[in-house]
Structures are given as C-alpha cells and as structure tokens.
C-alpha cells in the first residue's frame, strides 16, 4: 500500500513541470498568473489551518471537560458574537485581497502594448489551428498551421477567432486560456521568456476530436524567428525526383480544393496551408509526428487515425499516396 501511495505521489509531481504545466511558467503572463495562484493557495491554506486549529481546540476542550478535569462552562453570548464577527472580518479580508489581486492582474495583462508588438491572427477550426503572421519586412500576411513560432522576450498580440464552434486557446506555460467564439474577436498577449518547445491546446470541448486539437509552440531567438518567418513567406520549393513531381501534380489537382501550396495551383482554404508542411514537428493538429509514413497513412485513411475529421479518404493507391507523402515531406 505504501508503494502504491508513493507511486501515486510521483505521478502527481510529474504534472508539475514539462511543456504543458502552469507550475513551470516560461512567459511573463504565466509568471503573473502563477503569483496570483500562489497567493490564492496561501490564503486558502491559512483559512484551512485556522479552521482545523479551532476545531481541534474545541474537541480537545470538550473531551477534557467531559472527563471532569475542567468544569463545563458554556460560552457567553457576547464572547460568541465577538468571535463570529472576528471570523467574518478575517474571511472578508482574505476575499478582498484575492479580488483586488485578480482585478489588478486582469487590468495589467489587458493593457495596451507598444505599436511594434508582433501580431498573429489565430483561427480555430474543427479540429486544427490556422496561424497568420504579418511579415514586418513586407507588411504581407504569411499563413501556416498547427505550429506557432514566437520570438523570445518580445510581446506577441494574438487575435482569436473561430469559423465554427466555441474553442479555447491555451498555452499553459505562457499564459492563461482565452475562449475563441464565432463572430467575436478576442485578444491575448504572449511574452515568452524562455527558449524551447511548448504545447498548446483547445481547452473548450468542441466535438469528438477535441482532445486531438493541439499545436506546438516554439520560442526561439529573434534572429531564428526572422529567418523562419522569411522562409514561411516563400513559395513552395520545386520537387526533385520523379515521385515528388508526381506528388505535386496530385496535390495540385486532387487536393487543390481544400489546401493551399503557394507557388502551385493548389489554393483551397478549407484545410491547413501545406506550403511548408515538411518543416513542422507534428501533423494533424498534434496527433502524429511528421514523417513520410504518417503522411501516407493520413492521406489513405484519415478517419482511422482521427475519427470525425473533415479530411476525407482519398481514392489514391499506395504508390500515389507515397508520391504525395514524398512531395509534402520535402516542403521545408
């Protein structure tokens, strides 16, 4: 039994760190929220200890009185009233402290940012994420999907919208969650302070594949971010090899209604932009590691991997799917 409790404790502690933990903040907003969480825990723990202390004192005193060592004395009404008033004042002070801290934090996080703040437009769809950046060099918008890149030490203003149902945007290590509501634009600021990979996810139930609506977040240096954004703004590279060329022809015809590959005839908007798919870490909104085998499997039988996804099964044979997979994997 002791071993079982020890194992349970280790598993619980495992959730206190990593790429998806509010207790391991890597951004300014997450740090601020953790400070308020710590204050809430402190106030709640103080009240809990006081309740247990008075309860224990009352039990011990009553037992001593019943044993005959102390005379039984009922508390005076005036003393009881003073005690209740003092306890009510203590509770009011604790709640007032938490309300004030929450209000000040909310106003501070919602404050206007400088004009040079980077803007990213995020659109949530069942069940994936569309990310669109404004290129500071050209002013044009650059689109990608399911992988968010952020420069370290710089505030990024994320504007959130939905094309279908209510979702919720949440990167626990960087900031609190924000609902994404159809017909409404919400705003969230992210100021990462630590390099690395983090995980974002939808935090509002949005359908059968809600659990598989995630995205990767990479926080990198300003120079690496600029290089990444410049590469994302370029059209797709021309394929090398017979199989990859065949894959491009298939994508430009059979996939063109739903997906975009800039520089080709594929210009659909229903699905994710595939222009630089091969440069991403995962695919299908965090469901699979990105490699040729997973791309091929997703093309042939997406419903067996992610039931309910809007990606339909194709009529391609295995060789055609392999050609498409080779082409997409090469789109760096």
Structural class by SSE content: alpha+beta
- One letter per element, helices H and strands E, the order comes to HHHEEEEEEEEEEHHEEHHH
Major beta sheet, strand line-up:
3-2-1-5-8
How would you state the average pLDDT, rounded? 86
Q: Regions with pLDDT < 50 over 5+ consecutive residues?
A: none
CATH homologous superfamily grouping of the largest domain = Cupredoxins -  blue copper proteins
Question: So what's the CATH class of the largest domain?
Answer: Mainly Beta
Largest sheet: 5 strands, mixed
Shape: elongated
| CATH architecture identity of the largest domain | Sandwich
Helix content: 40-55%
Summarize the entry for a quick read.
41% of the residues lie in helices and 19% in strands.
Features:
332 residues, Immunoglobulin-like, 3 domains, five-stranded mixed beta sheet, 12 strands, elongated
Give structural notes.
There is one protein chain. By secondary structure, the chain is an alpha+beta fold. It has three domains: 20-109; 118-233, Cupredoxins -  blue copper proteins (Immunoglobulin-like); 242-329, Cupredoxins -  blue copper proteins (Immunoglobulin-like). Helices cover 41% and strands 19% of the residues. The chain contains eight helices and twelve strands. It has helices spanning 2-14, 28-66, 77-109, 222-233, 242-254, 292-300, 302-305, 318-329, and strands spanning 118-125, 128-134, 141-145, 147-151, 156-162, 167-170, 178-180, 186-190, 196-202, 214-220, 282-283, 288-289. It has a five-stranded mixed β-sheet. Strands 4-10-9-6-7 form a five-stranded mixed β-sheet, covered by helices on one side. A two-stranded antiparallel ribbon has the order 11-12. A hairpin with a 2-residue loop joins strand 1 (118-125) and strand 2. The longest helix has 39 residues, at 28-66.
